[in-house]
Specification:
This protein is of the alpha/beta class. Helices cover 28% and strands 23% of the residues. It contains 14 helices and 21 strands. It has helices spanning 16-27, 53-61, 65-69, 125-137, 189-193, 267-275, 324-343, 352-381, 392-413, 416-420, 469-472, 489-497, 510-515, 540-547; strands at residues 2-12, 32-36, 81-84, 91-95, 142-146, 148-155, 160-166, 172-182, 198-213, 228-231, 238-242, 248-254, 284-288, 291-298, 302-303, 306-308, 314-316, 477-481, 502-506, 520-523, 529-533. The strands form three sheets. Strands 3, 4, 9, 10, 11, 12, 13, 14 and 17 form a nine-stranded mixed sheet that branches. Helix 1 (16-27) runs parallel beside helix 4 (125-137) and helix 1 (16-27) packs parallel to helix 7. It is globular, with a radius of gyration of 24 Å. The chain starts with a strand and ends in a 6-residue tail after the last helix.
C-alpha cells in the first residue's frame, strides 16, 4: 500500500533547522511537509546550548522569541563564562553575560552593547526543540510525518518526487513537491542523492562529552554559578555547561592529539578531574554525547529543485555558537526566496541567490571557528604546571592565564562580528553600488561595523513609535525612506506592476541618520540591504527586475 502526498516543499529532517524553515515557509503561505525519523515525544540530544542574536531576531519575526527566552535556565541564572582551575576550584577570570532577566536592565559587560532587539539566549536544545515542534505542529499548512524515513528522490522540470516509508507500519509514502530541502544532518541522504561532497578538515578536535546529573555540584562552587564553566589544569582541561541551572550539566573533555579515540581516556577520571571532585562525589551519566570537531563544507547547496541547509551542508567545531545557528541563517535566506518564487513574483533566477549568498559565508565562518579551536587547544596545552600552587608563582600563573583566557574567549562568547558582520557580495539579486562607492566593512569573530553597503545587514534602530525596525519590515521588500521629500512613486509603481511586494516605511530618527548613509534603502525580509541611493534610479523597472531575479547573470 502506497500513500501519496502532494505539497509545495518537502523538508527532510525535523531538527531545529528543519522545523524553523518549515515554520517560516508555512507562515508565508507555503504548504510544507516535514519528514522526521524520531517520534514526536522523543527528547533531542542536549547538543546545542546557544541561540545566537541573529537567530533570536528570526524567532522574533516568527513569534517565538519570548517563548524561547522564558525556557531553559532559571530567569536569574547568570549566563557568564567562568575560568577556573577546576569547576570547584579557584576562579581565574569571568566573562560577564546577563541572565535572561538581566537582559532587560544590565548595560555593562562585553555582551550588552549589541544593536539588536533580540540579544543571544543560552538555552539547551532539549528545551528549544520541543518549543519549535509544538509551534510547528499547530501551524496551518505544515504537516510533520514522524517516524518516517526518506529513501530516495527523483526530479524533473516540474517538481521532485520523494519516496519514504513509515518505520512502524512499513507503509510507503510517495511525496510530490515543487521543491525539497535536506536538513538531515551531517550524514545527509539528500546530499548524497544530489551528488554533494563534503571537503575540508575531517578532524579538528575530539570531544568526549557526557550529559550528567549532579545535584551536589552547585553548592560546591567557590564562586557564583554560571552557564559556562571552563576548567584549566595540567591534568585535564574541559568545559561544563549548565543545562537546567540546577542539577544537569554537559561536560566536554577535549582529547589531546595522542588520544586517538573516545575511550582512550577514562571517562569517570576525566569528569572528576574537570569538576575537581574526589571519588566520593556522586553523579549519574544520562547519556554520552561524544563528537568530532570538523571543518567540512559541501561543494554545492543546490541541484535543480533540491537544496541543502544546516549540517547537511556544513559541519564545523561549534565555537562562536555557530553550528546550529548557521543552519538557521541558511533557512532564513532560503525560506523567503522559495516563497517568492512559489508566489509567482520571484522568477527562477531568484533561487540562484541562495547558493551564491550562503556558500561563501559558510566558508568564512568555518575558518573563524576552526582557527579559534586551534587557539583554544594551544591554550589548554600551555597550562602552567604551577597553576594550582599556593605560592607567588602560582598566583602569577593564575592571573596571567585568567587574562589570556578572557582575551581569547570573549571573542567567541560575545561574537558580534559573526552575528552582524557577514555580508553577501556575490548575489544576483542585490544591486551593488557602482564602481568602488560601497566597500563592505571587514569583520572578525568579535567585531563589526554597521553599514548599509548592499549585501550587509540593515543596521538596527528603534523607531519613534517604540518598535524595532525589524518589526516594521514587510514580508517582501521594504523601502526605508529617511527624507519624506524624496519622491518614490516611480519605484513603488514599478514594483506593483511586477507584483513585487515593496512596502514604504518612512523613518525619522537621529539614530537612523547616524548609521544610514543614504536617504533610501531597500531591505529584504532577511534584513540584508538589497539597494541604496539618494534618489530612486532612473530605470526603476530594471531595479525591480533585478530584485525579483529576472536580470540575467
Amino acid at each position: 500500500m502506497t500513500r501519496t502526498v502532494e505539497t509545495d516543499v518537502v523538508v527532510v529532517g525535523g531538527g531545529p533547522v528543519g522545523l524553523t524553515l518549515a515554520i517560516d515557509l508555512a507562515g508565508r503561505g507555503v504548504a510544507v511537509t516535514v519528514l522526521e525519523l524520531r517520534p514526536p515525544a522523543e527528547p533531542p540530544s542536549p547538543k546545542c546550548n546557544h541561540v545566537a542574536a541573529r537567530s533570536m531576531e528570526l524567532f522574533r519575526r516568527l513569534g517565538l522569541a519570548q517563548k524561547l527566552r522564558d525556557a531553559g535556565l532559571p530567569a536569574d541564572f547568570a549566563h557568564d563564562i567562568a575560568y577556573r582551575t577546576t569547576m570547584t576550584g579557584p576562579e581565574l577570570s569571568r566573562i560577564p553575560i546577563p541572565s535572561r532577566n538581566g537582559r532587560q536592565t544590565d548595560a555593562t559587560g562585553p555582551d550588552t552593547w549589541w544593536p539588536t532587539p533580540e540579544p543571544a539566549h543560552r538555552i539547551n536544545q532539549i528545551f528549544l526543540e520541543p518549543i519549535l515542534f509544538e509551534h510547528a505542529a499547530a501551524v496551518p499548512g505544515l504537516t510533520i510525518l514522524n517516524r518516517t524515513s526518506f529513501e530516495r528522490l527523483a526530479q524533473d522540470d516540474d517538481g521532485v518526487t520523494a519516496t519514504a516509508h513509515h518505520l512502524d507500519s512499513g507503509e510507503e509514502i510517495r511525496l510530490w513537491a515543487r521543491f525539497l530541502v535536506g536538513c538531515d544532518g551531517g550524514r545527509s541522504p539528500v546530499r548524497r542523492a544530489i551528488g554533494g561532497t563534503l571537503s575540508g578538515d575531517a578532524v579538528v578536535q575530539r570531544c568526549q562529552s557526557s550529559y550528567i546529573r549532579a545535584p551536589q555540584l552547585l553548592p560546591m562552587l567557590q564562586t557564583a554559578p554560571c552557564w559556562g564553566n571552563v576548567s584549566l589544569n595540567p591534568r585535564r582541561s574541559g568545559t561544563v555547561y549548565a543545562v537546567d541551572g540546577r542539577e544537569t550539566w554537559i561536560v566536554h573533555n577535549y582529547l589531546r592529539d595522542a588520544e586517538a579515540d573516545f575511550d582512550s581516556v577514562d571517562r569517570d577520571w576525566s569528569i572528576r578531574s574537570i569538576l575537581g571532585v574526589g571519588p566520593d562525589f556522586e553523579y549519574e551519566i544520562l547519556s554520552r554525547e561524544d563528537w568530532f570537531g570538523r571543518r567540512l563544507v559541501t561543494d554545492k547547496l543546490r541541484e535543480g529543485r533540491v537544496f541543502l541547509a544546516g549540517d547537511s551542508a556544513h559541519i564545523w567545531v561549534p565555537y562562536g555558537g555557530y553550528g546550529m545557528n548557521a543552519g538557521l541563517a541558511d533557512g532564513a535566506d532560503l525560506a523567503w526566496l522559495l516563497a517568492a518564487h512559489l508566489a509567482g513574483w520571484g522568477t527562477e533566477g531568484i533561487l540562484d541567490a541562495y547558493e551564491r549568498e550562503r556558500l561563501p559565508i559558510t566558508e568564512q565562518v568555518s575558518y573563524f571557528a576552526m582557527d579559534h579551536a586551534h587557539a583554544m587547544a594551544r591554550q589548554r596545552r600551555g597550562v602552567p604546571p604551577e597553576i594550582e600552587e599556593a605560592s607567588p608563582a602560582g598566583e602569577a600563573a593564575r592571573a596571567a592565564l585568567g587574562q589570556a583566557a578572557y582575551d581569547l574567549n570573549v571573542l567567541q562568547y560575545c561574537a558580534a562580528g559573526l552575528n552582524f558582520g557577514y555580508y553577501y557580495d556575490r548575489s544576483p539579486i542585490i544591486a551593488y553600488d557602482a564602481h568602488d562607492a560601497g566597500t563592505h566593512p571587514p569583520y572578525s569573530m568579535g567585531h563589526f561595523t554597521p553599514s548599509t553597503v548592499p549585501g550587509c545587514r540593515a543596521p538596527h534602530i528603534w523607531l519613534q513609535d517604540g518598535r524595532s525596525l525589524y518589526d516594521a519590515l514587510g514580508d517582501g521588500y521594504t523601502l526605508l525612506r529617511l527624507d519624506r521629500s524624496i519622491p518614490v512613486d516611480g519605484l513603488l509603481d514599478a514594483a506593483a506592476a511586477r507584483s513585487v511586494p515593496l512596502t514604504l516605511l518612512d523613518i525619522s530618527s537621529p539614530e537612523a541618520a547616524d548609521v544610514y548613509q543614504t536617504a533610501l534603502v531597500i531591505a529584504r525580509p532577511d534584513q540584508h540591504v538589497a539597494w541604496r541611493g539618494h534618489a530612486i534610479p532612473s530605470d526603476p523597472v530594471a531595479l525591480v527586475d533585478l530584485l525579483r531575479g529576472a536580470t540575467p547573470t
